[in-house]
Request: fold
Amino acid sequence: MEGCKGKGRKEEVVHSRLRLGHTGFRKTLFLMGKVESENCDMCDVPESVEHVLMECRKYERQRRILRDRMHELERKKCERNISAANISGFSTLPAHTQDFLYYRHCRHFPYSSQVFLFFVIKSSPGNYERREVLRKTWARERQHNGLWIRRIFISGTAGSGVEKMRLNKLLQVNDILQWDFADSFFNLTHKQILFLEWMERNCPNTRFLLNGDDDVFANTDNMVEYLHGLTDNDGGKHLFIGHLIQYRVPIRSPGNKYFVPVQVHESNSYPPYCGGGGSMAAGFIYDMSKSITLLPIDDVYMGMCLAKAVCDSGLKPESHMWMKTPCFYKEVLVVHRFLPLQMFLMWHRIQNPELDCSSSFKVL
Reply:
Protein backbone atom coordinates (compact mmCIF):
# COMPACT_ATOMS: atom_id res chain seq x y z
CA MET A 1 0.00 0.00 0.00
CA GLU A 2 2.10 2.84 -1.30
CA GLY A 3 1.56 6.50 -0.58
CA CYS A 4 -0.34 8.37 2.10
CA LYS A 5 -1.02 11.95 1.09
CA GLY A 6 -1.33 14.64 3.73
CA LYS A 7 -4.10 17.22 3.42
CA GLY A 8 -2.97 19.75 6.02
CA ARG A 9 -1.92 23.35 5.37
CA LYS A 10 1.75 24.04 4.86
CA GLU A 11 2.36 25.01 8.47
CA GLU A 12 0.92 21.76 9.79
CA VAL A 13 2.70 18.47 10.16
CA VAL A 14 0.42 15.66 9.09
CA HIS A 15 -0.78 13.73 12.13
CA SER A 16 -2.70 10.95 10.42
CA ARG A 17 -0.75 7.81 9.73
CA LEU A 18 -1.71 4.68 7.91
CA ARG A 19 -0.80 1.74 10.05
CA LEU A 20 -0.68 -1.54 8.28
CA GLY A 21 -0.49 -4.76 10.26
CA HIS A 22 0.96 -7.17 7.73
CA THR A 23 -0.05 -10.61 8.96
CA GLY A 24 2.20 -12.35 6.50
CA PHE A 25 5.31 -10.28 7.03
CA ARG A 26 4.62 -9.18 10.63
CA LYS A 27 5.68 -5.58 10.31
CA THR A 28 4.12 -2.16 10.63
CA LEU A 29 4.48 0.66 8.13
CA PHE A 30 4.21 4.22 9.36
CA LEU A 31 3.51 6.40 6.33
CA MET A 32 3.77 10.13 6.89
CA GLY A 33 2.39 12.39 4.20
CA LYS A 34 4.21 15.36 2.76
CA VAL A 35 2.96 18.74 3.86
CA GLU A 36 3.62 20.69 0.71
CA SER A 37 1.33 22.63 -1.57
CA GLU A 38 1.86 23.79 -5.10
CA ASN A 39 2.48 27.37 -3.98
CA CYS A 40 4.44 26.55 -0.86
CA ASP A 41 7.04 29.26 -0.25
CA MET A 42 9.59 27.92 2.22
CA CYS A 43 10.68 31.47 3.08
CA ASP A 44 7.32 32.06 4.74
CA VAL A 45 7.60 28.96 6.88
CA PRO A 46 8.91 29.48 10.44
CA GLU A 47 12.36 28.06 10.99
CA SER A 48 11.16 25.42 13.42
CA VAL A 49 8.54 24.12 11.00
CA GLU A 50 11.03 24.17 8.11
CA HIS A 51 13.32 22.04 10.22
CA VAL A 52 10.48 19.58 10.85
CA LEU A 53 9.74 19.43 7.13
CA MET A 54 13.37 18.66 6.36
CA GLU A 55 13.40 15.94 8.99
CA CYS A 56 10.19 14.48 7.57
CA ARG A 57 11.68 14.31 4.08
CA LYS A 58 14.86 12.77 5.46
CA TYR A 59 12.78 10.22 7.34
CA GLU A 60 10.81 9.42 4.18
CA ARG A 61 13.98 8.76 2.18
CA GLN A 62 15.39 6.52 4.90
CA ARG A 63 12.09 4.67 5.21
CA ARG A 64 11.94 4.01 1.46
CA ILE A 65 15.50 2.68 1.45
CA LEU A 66 14.75 0.43 4.43
CA ARG A 67 11.49 -0.76 2.90
CA ASP A 68 13.14 -1.62 -0.42
CA ARG A 69 15.91 -3.46 1.41
CA MET A 70 13.38 -5.45 3.46
CA HIS A 71 11.43 -6.39 0.34
CA GLU A 72 14.65 -7.52 -1.33
CA LEU A 73 15.50 -9.71 1.66
CA GLU A 74 11.97 -11.11 1.78
CA ARG A 75 12.22 -12.26 -1.84
CA LYS A 76 15.81 -13.49 -1.76
CA LYS A 77 16.37 -17.11 -0.85
CA CYS A 78 19.39 -17.91 1.29
CA GLU A 79 21.29 -20.77 -0.31
CA ARG A 80 22.89 -23.44 1.83
CA ASN A 81 26.64 -23.41 2.35
CA ILE A 82 27.74 -26.69 0.76
CA SER A 83 31.27 -26.27 2.14
CA ALA A 84 29.85 -27.14 5.56
CA ALA A 85 30.01 -30.77 4.44
CA ASN A 86 33.80 -30.51 4.67
CA ILE A 87 33.66 -30.03 8.44
CA SER A 88 35.35 -32.90 10.25
CA GLY A 89 32.82 -35.52 11.33
CA PHE A 90 29.98 -33.84 9.41
CA SER A 91 28.64 -37.09 7.96
CA THR A 92 28.21 -38.57 11.44
CA LEU A 93 26.01 -35.74 12.68
CA PRO A 94 22.19 -35.98 12.89
CA ALA A 95 20.29 -34.61 9.90
CA HIS A 96 18.92 -31.60 11.81
CA THR A 97 22.45 -30.64 12.93
CA GLN A 98 23.72 -30.93 9.37
CA ASP A 99 20.86 -28.73 8.23
CA PHE A 100 21.74 -26.14 10.87
CA LEU A 101 25.37 -26.02 9.71
CA TYR A 102 24.32 -25.69 6.08
CA TYR A 103 22.25 -22.58 6.86
CA ARG A 104 24.07 -21.14 9.88
CA HIS A 105 25.31 -18.18 7.82
CA CYS A 106 21.77 -17.10 6.89
CA ARG A 107 20.33 -14.06 8.64
CA HIS A 108 17.22 -13.62 6.50
CA PHE A 109 14.77 -16.05 4.95
CA PRO A 110 11.88 -15.30 2.57
CA TYR A 111 8.50 -15.19 4.24
CA SER A 112 6.02 -17.92 3.48
CA SER A 113 3.03 -16.66 1.50
CA GLN A 114 1.17 -19.97 1.73
CA VAL A 115 -1.88 -19.16 3.85
CA PHE A 116 -4.56 -21.84 3.93
CA LEU A 117 -7.24 -19.91 5.84
CA PHE A 118 -7.22 -16.13 6.32
CA PHE A 119 -9.53 -14.56 8.92
CA VAL A 120 -10.73 -11.16 7.70
CA ILE A 121 -12.55 -9.60 10.63
CA LYS A 122 -14.49 -6.35 10.27
CA SER A 123 -14.04 -4.39 13.47
CA SER A 124 -14.88 -0.82 14.46
CA PRO A 125 -12.03 1.14 16.09
CA GLY A 126 -13.67 1.16 19.52
CA ASN A 127 -14.16 -2.62 19.79
CA TYR A 128 -10.94 -3.23 21.76
CA GLU A 129 -12.27 -5.99 24.01
CA ARG A 130 -13.70 -7.98 21.12
CA ARG A 131 -10.42 -7.94 19.22
CA GLU A 132 -8.43 -8.96 22.29
CA VAL A 133 -10.71 -11.94 22.95
CA LEU A 134 -10.50 -13.05 19.32
CA ARG A 135 -6.69 -12.93 19.44
CA LYS A 136 -6.76 -15.34 22.37
CA THR A 137 -9.46 -17.70 21.09
CA TRP A 138 -10.57 -18.83 17.64
CA ALA A 139 -8.71 -16.13 15.64
CA ARG A 140 -5.31 -16.95 17.13
CA GLU A 141 -2.68 -17.27 14.40
CA ARG A 142 -1.24 -20.75 14.27
CA GLN A 143 -0.69 -23.91 12.25
CA HIS A 144 -3.35 -26.62 12.32
CA ASN A 145 -2.12 -29.96 11.01
CA GLY A 146 0.59 -28.12 9.09
CA LEU A 147 -1.79 -25.55 7.52
CA TRP A 148 -1.28 -21.85 8.24
CA ILE A 149 -4.11 -19.81 9.77
CA ARG A 150 -3.67 -16.02 9.64
CA ARG A 151 -5.72 -13.09 10.97
CA ILE A 152 -6.28 -9.44 10.21
CA PHE A 153 -8.78 -6.86 11.46
CA ILE A 154 -10.02 -4.29 8.94
CA SER A 155 -11.26 -0.92 10.10
CA GLY A 156 -12.04 2.67 9.18
CA THR A 157 -11.62 5.65 11.49
CA ALA A 158 -13.81 6.96 14.30
CA GLY A 159 -13.59 9.04 17.44
CA SER A 160 -10.95 11.51 18.50
CA GLY A 161 -8.61 12.32 21.36
CA VAL A 162 -8.43 9.49 23.90
CA GLU A 163 -10.17 7.00 21.60
CA LYS A 164 -7.63 7.50 18.81
CA MET A 165 -4.72 7.32 21.24
CA ARG A 166 -6.05 4.06 22.62
CA LEU A 167 -6.47 2.55 19.15
CA ASN A 168 -2.98 3.70 18.12
CA LYS A 169 -1.52 1.91 21.12
CA LEU A 170 -3.34 -1.28 20.15
CA LEU A 171 -2.17 -0.97 16.54
CA GLN A 172 1.20 -2.11 17.83
CA VAL A 173 -0.17 -5.67 17.76
CA ASN A 174 0.39 -5.44 13.97
CA ASP A 175 -2.86 -7.08 12.94
CA ILE A 176 -5.08 -4.09 12.08
CA LEU A 177 -5.46 -2.74 8.57
CA GLN A 178 -6.98 0.73 8.83
CA TRP A 179 -8.07 3.16 6.12
CA ASP A 180 -8.83 6.85 6.40
CA PHE A 181 -12.59 6.78 5.91
CA ALA A 182 -15.45 6.84 8.40
CA ASP A 183 -16.09 3.43 9.93
CA SER A 184 -19.79 3.07 9.16
CA PHE A 185 -22.28 0.50 7.95
CA PHE A 186 -22.25 1.86 4.40
CA ASN A 187 -18.48 1.67 4.15
CA LEU A 188 -18.28 -2.06 4.87
CA THR A 189 -17.97 -2.84 1.17
CA HIS A 190 -15.02 -0.46 0.91
CA LYS A 191 -13.34 -2.37 3.73
CA GLN A 192 -13.91 -5.64 1.92
CA ILE A 193 -12.62 -4.55 -1.48
CA LEU A 194 -9.61 -2.68 -0.10
CA PHE A 195 -8.65 -5.75 1.88
CA LEU A 196 -8.97 -8.04 -1.15
CA GLU A 197 -6.77 -5.66 -3.12
CA TRP A 198 -4.21 -5.66 -0.28
CA MET A 199 -4.34 -9.45 -0.05
CA GLU A 200 -3.71 -9.89 -3.76
CA ARG A 201 -0.48 -7.89 -3.42
CA ASN A 202 0.75 -9.29 -0.12
CA CYS A 203 -0.73 -12.79 0.28
CA PRO A 204 -1.62 -13.85 -3.28
CA ASN A 205 -1.49 -17.57 -2.47
CA THR A 206 -4.23 -17.47 0.18
CA ARG A 207 -6.59 -20.38 -0.45
CA PHE A 208 -9.65 -19.53 1.65
CA LEU A 209 -11.09 -16.52 3.47
CA LEU A 210 -13.35 -16.28 6.46
CA ASN A 211 -15.21 -12.98 6.27
CA GLY A 212 -16.63 -12.22 9.68
CA ASP A 213 -17.71 -9.57 12.15
CA ASP A 214 -15.93 -9.22 15.48
CA ASP A 215 -18.92 -10.70 17.34
CA VAL A 216 -18.74 -13.99 15.42
CA PHE A 217 -17.84 -17.27 17.11
CA ALA A 218 -16.00 -19.62 14.76
CA ASN A 219 -14.80 -23.17 15.31
CA THR A 220 -11.63 -22.79 13.29
CA ASP A 221 -10.44 -26.37 13.74
CA ASN A 222 -13.67 -27.56 12.12
CA MET A 223 -13.19 -25.05 9.32
CA VAL A 224 -9.70 -26.26 8.46
CA GLU A 225 -10.78 -29.91 8.55
CA TYR A 226 -13.82 -29.18 6.38
CA LEU A 227 -11.89 -27.13 3.80
CA HIS A 228 -8.95 -29.51 3.71
CA GLY A 229 -11.34 -32.39 3.11
CA LEU A 230 -12.74 -30.81 -0.06
CA THR A 231 -11.81 -32.48 -3.34
CA ASP A 232 -10.55 -29.16 -4.73
CA ASN A 233 -8.99 -27.36 -1.78
CA ASP A 234 -6.54 -25.10 -3.59
CA GLY A 235 -8.81 -22.03 -3.35
CA GLY A 236 -9.22 -21.78 -7.11
CA LYS A 237 -12.80 -23.02 -7.22
CA HIS A 238 -15.94 -21.00 -6.60
CA LEU A 239 -16.57 -21.94 -2.99
CA PHE A 240 -18.89 -19.76 -0.90
CA ILE A 241 -20.25 -21.05 2.40
CA GLY A 242 -22.54 -19.31 4.85
CA HIS A 243 -26.12 -18.56 5.83
CA LEU A 244 -27.84 -18.51 2.44
CA ILE A 245 -30.33 -15.67 1.86
CA GLN A 246 -32.44 -15.73 -1.30
CA TYR A 247 -35.25 -13.87 -3.04
CA ARG A 248 -34.50 -10.53 -1.35
CA VAL A 249 -35.17 -7.17 -2.97
CA PRO A 250 -33.66 -3.71 -2.41
CA ILE A 251 -35.38 -1.67 0.28
CA ARG A 252 -36.48 1.66 -1.15
CA SER A 253 -37.70 3.31 2.09
CA PRO A 254 -35.29 6.16 3.01
CA GLY A 255 -35.77 5.66 6.74
CA ASN A 256 -34.62 2.04 6.68
CA LYS A 257 -31.05 1.09 7.64
CA TYR A 258 -30.76 -0.98 4.45
CA PHE A 259 -32.15 1.71 2.14
CA VAL A 260 -30.73 1.39 -1.38
CA PRO A 261 -32.14 3.87 -3.93
CA VAL A 262 -32.41 3.13 -7.64
CA GLN A 263 -29.53 5.56 -8.20
CA VAL A 264 -27.29 3.08 -6.40
CA HIS A 265 -28.82 -0.22 -7.58
CA GLU A 266 -31.28 -0.19 -10.48
CA SER A 267 -32.30 -3.84 -10.31
CA ASN A 268 -35.34 -4.74 -8.22
CA SER A 269 -33.78 -7.96 -6.96
CA TYR A 270 -30.66 -9.22 -5.22
CA PRO A 271 -28.77 -12.39 -6.13
CA PRO A 272 -28.48 -15.12 -3.49
CA TYR A 273 -25.91 -14.13 -0.87
CA CYS A 274 -24.53 -15.20 2.49
CA GLY A 275 -25.76 -13.02 5.33
CA GLY A 276 -25.22 -12.90 9.04
CA GLY A 277 -21.88 -12.48 10.73
CA GLY A 278 -19.60 -14.73 8.73
CA SER A 279 -19.01 -16.63 5.51
CA MET A 280 -16.18 -18.57 3.91
CA ALA A 281 -15.00 -18.03 0.37
CA ALA A 282 -12.23 -19.22 -1.89
CA GLY A 283 -9.46 -16.79 -2.67
CA PHE A 284 -10.70 -16.36 -6.26
CA ILE A 285 -13.36 -13.85 -5.19
CA TYR A 286 -11.27 -10.71 -5.76
CA ASP A 287 -11.04 -11.41 -9.49
CA MET A 288 -14.84 -11.27 -9.65
CA SER A 289 -15.03 -7.95 -7.79
CA LYS A 290 -12.87 -5.97 -10.21
CA SER A 291 -15.66 -5.45 -12.74
CA ILE A 292 -18.65 -5.04 -10.41
CA THR A 293 -19.92 -1.63 -9.26
CA LEU A 294 -19.82 -1.25 -5.49
CA LEU A 295 -22.97 -1.67 -3.42
CA PRO A 296 -23.01 -0.35 0.18
CA ILE A 297 -24.36 -3.60 1.66
CA ASP A 298 -21.28 -5.81 1.71
CA ASP A 299 -23.05 -9.17 2.04
CA VAL A 300 -25.13 -8.48 -1.07
CA TYR A 301 -22.08 -7.20 -2.95
CA MET A 302 -20.20 -10.43 -2.27
CA GLY A 303 -23.26 -12.29 -3.55
CA MET A 304 -23.05 -10.22 -6.73
CA CYS A 305 -19.43 -11.30 -7.11
CA LEU A 306 -20.50 -14.90 -6.70
CA ALA A 307 -23.36 -14.50 -9.19
CA LYS A 308 -20.86 -13.27 -11.77
CA ALA A 309 -19.00 -16.54 -11.38
CA VAL A 310 -22.30 -18.41 -11.99
CA CYS A 311 -21.80 -20.87 -9.15
CA ASP A 312 -23.61 -22.49 -6.30
CA SER A 313 -24.32 -20.03 -3.50
CA GLY A 314 -23.16 -22.22 -0.62
CA LEU A 315 -24.65 -24.43 2.06
CA LYS A 316 -28.32 -24.00 2.87
CA PRO A 317 -29.11 -23.01 6.45
CA GLU A 318 -30.54 -25.45 8.97
CA SER A 319 -32.89 -24.75 11.86
CA HIS A 320 -31.60 -25.73 15.28
CA MET A 321 -34.26 -25.78 17.96
CA TRP A 322 -32.41 -27.65 20.68
CA MET A 323 -30.42 -26.25 23.61
CA LYS A 324 -27.14 -24.69 22.47
CA THR A 325 -24.68 -26.65 24.61
CA PRO A 326 -20.88 -26.83 24.24
CA CYS A 327 -21.41 -29.92 22.06
CA PHE A 328 -23.64 -27.85 19.78
CA TYR A 329 -20.93 -25.22 19.29
CA LYS A 330 -18.26 -27.88 18.90
CA GLU A 331 -20.00 -29.03 15.71
CA VAL A 332 -20.66 -25.67 14.03
CA LEU A 333 -18.43 -23.60 11.75
CA VAL A 334 -19.69 -20.06 12.36
CA VAL A 335 -22.19 -18.51 14.80
CA HIS A 336 -23.12 -14.82 14.89
CA ARG A 337 -23.60 -12.45 17.86
CA PHE A 338 -21.42 -13.45 20.79
CA LEU A 339 -20.37 -11.12 23.58
CA PRO A 340 -16.61 -11.16 24.37
CA LEU A 341 -17.06 -13.06 27.66
CA GLN A 342 -19.39 -15.61 26.05
CA MET A 343 -16.90 -16.16 23.26
CA PHE A 344 -13.98 -16.62 25.64
CA LEU A 345 -15.83 -19.12 27.84
CA MET A 346 -17.31 -21.14 24.97
CA TRP A 347 -13.99 -21.38 23.13
CA HIS A 348 -12.30 -22.89 26.17
CA ARG A 349 -15.20 -25.25 26.82
CA ILE A 350 -15.15 -26.75 23.32
CA GLN A 351 -11.37 -27.16 23.60
CA ASN A 352 -11.86 -29.45 26.60
CA PRO A 353 -10.46 -32.84 25.51
CA GLU A 354 -13.00 -34.60 27.75
CA LEU A 355 -15.94 -33.13 25.80
CA ASP A 356 -17.29 -36.04 23.73
CA CYS A 357 -19.59 -35.04 20.87
CA SER A 358 -20.55 -36.28 17.44
CA SER A 359 -19.05 -34.52 14.43
CA SER A 360 -21.29 -32.99 11.78
CA PHE A 361 -20.44 -29.49 10.61
CA LYS A 362 -23.10 -26.76 10.55
CA VAL A 363 -23.19 -23.13 9.48
CA LEU A 364 -25.50 -20.75 11.34
Summary: The chain has three domains: 18-75, 77-111, 117-350. The chain has ten helices and twelve strands. The first strand starts at residue 18 and ends at 21. Residues 119 and 151 are 5 Å apart (CA to CA).
